[in-house]
Design goal:
Keywords: Hydrolase, Nuclease, Signal. It holds the Pfam family Ribonuclease. InterPro entries: N1-like (IPR000026), Ribonuclease/ribotoxin (IPR016191). GO terms for molecular function: hydrolase activity; RNA binding; RNA endonuclease activity. This protein has about 120 residues and is of the alpha+beta class. The chain has a single domain (about 1-120), classed as Roll (Nuclear Transport Factor 2, Chain: A). Helices cover about 25% and strands about 20% of the residues. It has 2 helices and 6 strands, in the order αβαβββββ. A 6-stranded mixed β-sheet has the order 1-6-5-4-3-2. The chain is globular. The chain starts with a helix and ends with a strand.
């Protein structure tokens, strides 16, 4: 049931974000299945509510780069997507919006660009 709610929330958020005038944001999207397998594992952790392997996971993402639509502070949260071979958190992240999450974004380049995660799997 929770997975169904998760998919519906992703679909609704993607549909709303696609409407004209809904703010800035990534011009591209990707399906969850097109993400690295580590990102799928991170999405599953987010869906379960943790536990998260990194201390910074679940903390507020401030959107300083202004790559995502403008929202009040605390709207966005960030989660690490582990990178094989890296000794630290690496550059890959999933950023969620809303509580519970309504929209999901993936970045492979440490916030320089984002792809909205399309709910169709």
């Amino acid at each position: 049931m929770r997975a169904l709610i998760f998919r519906f929330a992703l679909f609704a958020a993607a549909a709303l974000a696609a409407l004209p005038g809904c703010g800035r944001g990534p011009d591209t999207s990707t399906t969850a299945d097109a993400l690295p397998r580590e990102a799928l594992a991170t999405l599953a952790l987010i869906d379960r509510g943790g536990p998260y392997p990194y201390r910074k996971d679940g903390t507020v993402f401030q959107n300083r780069e202004r790559q995502l639509p403008d929202k009040p502070r605390g709207y966005y949260r960030e989660y690490t997507v582990p990178t094989p071979g890296e000794n630290d958190r690496g550059a890959r992240r999933i950023v969620t919006g809303g509580n519970p999450p309504e929209v999901y974004y993936y970045t492979a380049d440490h916030y320089r660009s984002f792809r909205r995660i399309d709910p169709r799997r």
